[in-house]
Amino acid sequence: MRGGAPGANESNASYSLDWEASGESFFDGFDFLPEDGNHGAADYVSSYADAQLAGVARISGSHAILRPGRRSTKAFKRMSPKIATKKSWKHFLAAVHFKHLPWGCGVWPSFFTLGVGEWPAAGEMDILEYVNDGTSMTSFHTSKECRLDEAKVNKYRSMPDANYKGNDNSNYNCLTKYCATCKSLGCAPNAMPFLTSQQLADRSGVVAMERTASFTKIFFIPSWAIPADLDAGRPRPEAWDQWIISYYPFGDSESTCPEPDDIMAKQKFMFQIGLCGDWASKVWGDSAVCSRMGPSFDETATKDKRFINSTSKPRRCRAVDPLAENAPEQDCCHQFITDADGDYRSAQYLHENAFFKIAWFKVFTTATPILRPLNASDL
Asked: By C-alpha distance, which of 145, 148, 141 is closest to 178?
């Protein structure tokens, strides 16, 4: 008989440091990616040298800073960072000490993993993601049939599926398909209460992700509670259960989520500050704060998808869904973020609020064989 019992706690393995980003060399282990797949206002830079020139990435003392920069030469675009680790991992414990997180209207920040291979078959874990002044949540995306066992998901505390309604009332369904009419958004078990982007920005701490052959855990640990074992470089995440904010029991859901260890390929870690796009643009009118910023928001034109004259002053705008139409010149979010005439002081607003400040990022691995859930063929 090989392996371990389904859902076995592989965290009892001993972790040691495999990779670190910190200090002056923080960005050495990252690639800067220019592609924007979200139809937004971000013009991503393609190198660290370009990032420095555009004002979107720098080292400040012992911290790395990522933030939106100057307006782009492209219409309705602003320079912004999107970076990915050069290295990828299959099983790991990753931890990032954030001192500040980006927030604000028009901003779509994310810290996530992306599988090596075709999306979403290789898996994507959104560790932190939110738009405008909304709340953050974690979520997982795959093209494979995978529904998490509800009882196992709530093993540590209540973790309702934040995508339940968006998935047409399908609970903990990780299948993902994106389109204007699709209702397969991925699974999103999250401990309550949700925190708004500004609340997160004001709470420095460690965000960690543990990926084993049978589960994924996401932790948020306030700075005042960072475990001594993590500080010492010998983390014991089995003792961090009080800080779990999201739990994905793939192995304990094998009857509805086959081949749990293969649900995620080797993963790269990514930081990104998206602007507007498929999510932030279309929900602009849902925020009482954001809908009062920038041009005058026209709710009726938004509902009717009606053309409006967005060039004459006082300017008007509507919330546009880029998956349904390409109209950045009509979109409130694009107009506010790019701020062509400087009327909205968007550059100052983003500089003060919309930035990652990172003390360090560490990835730990274990030489101990990773147990996988027991299959019937093993008996």
From this structure: 141
CA distance 35 to 301: 31
Who wins on pLDDT, 200 or 238?
A: 238
Are 212 and 10 in contact by the 8 Å Cβ rule? The answer is yes
State yes or no: cis peptide before 193, omega within 30 of 0.
yes
Q: Name the amino acid, one letter, at 365.
A: T
Q: What is the pLDDT of residues 324-350, one digit of tens each?
A: 999 999 999 999 999 999 999 999 999
| Amino acid at residue number 6 | P
Q: What CA–CA distance (Å, rounded) separates 290 from 349?
A: 12
- Rounded Cα distance between 88 and 101, Å, is 24
- The answer to whether 144 and 244 are in contact (CB under 8 A) is no
Flag whether the pTM goes above 0.85: yes
- Cβ pair 197, 103 in contact under 8 A: yes
**3-class DSSP string for the chain:** CCCECCCCCHHHCCCEEEEEEEHHHHHHHEEECCCCCCCCCEEECCCHHHHHHHCCEEEECCEEEECCCCECCCCCCEEECEEEECCCECCEEEEEEEEECCCCCCEEEEEEEEECCCCCCCCEEEEEECCCCCECCCEEEECCCCECCHHHHCCCCCCCECCCCCCCCCCCECEEECCCCCCEECECECCCCCCEHHHHHCCCEEEEEEECCCCEEEEEEEHHHCCHHHHCCCCCHHHCHHHEEEEECCHHHCCCCCCHHHCCCCEEEEEEEEECHHHHCCCHHHCCCHHHCCCEECHHHHHHCCCCCCCCCCCEEECCCCCCCCCCCCEHHHHHHHCCCCCCCHHHHHHHHCCEEEEEEEEEECCCCCCCECCHHHC
* Cβ proximity of 55 and 67 under 8 Å: yes
- Higher per-residue confidence, 165 vs 217: 217
Nearest to 247, CA basis, from 271, 206, 199, 212: 212
Give the pLDDT of residue 5: 36
